[in-house]
Amino acid sequence: MFSIRETPLGIAFKIHVQPRSAKNMIAGVHGDALKIKLTSPPVDNAANRMCIQFLAKCLGVSKSSIEIVAGNSSRKKQVLLRSDQADLSESEYNHLKHLIEKLISD
User: CATH class for domain 4-105?
Assistant: First the structure.
């Protein structure tokens, strides 16, 4: 089951990246992670850069607010969506969580 957790810096969630795909897309859930297909190859950090760019576009946030915090050289990654606020309020957490959950339902 896909899970989103609150951290002091924002919210974290897992993704499963499939590089060298025909097109960039959210492909549902893979185990406990959001599955993302990317056209770039997993060479020279290209897939990670494209992943951040694609997630930022899908969520409508800046690229600087998304960080891969674990799994840089793996298909399974832990992503942090940073909050603009120093302390994450309940409404800000719910807003960020809603943005991520919307990716699954689209």
Answer: alpha beta
Partners of 77 in the beta sheet?
A: 15
| pLDDT digits 0-9 by tens, 63-86 | 998 999 999 999 999 999 987 655
The structure's pTM equals: 0.86
For the record, the structure tokens of 35 come out as 């599955």
Cα–Cα distance, 86 to 104 (Å, whole number): 27
Domain extent listing, the chain: 4-105
Among residues 17, 12, 20, the alpha carbon closest in space to that of 30 is found at: 17
Radius of gyration of the chain (CA): 13
CA triple 44-50-52, angle to 5 deg: 115
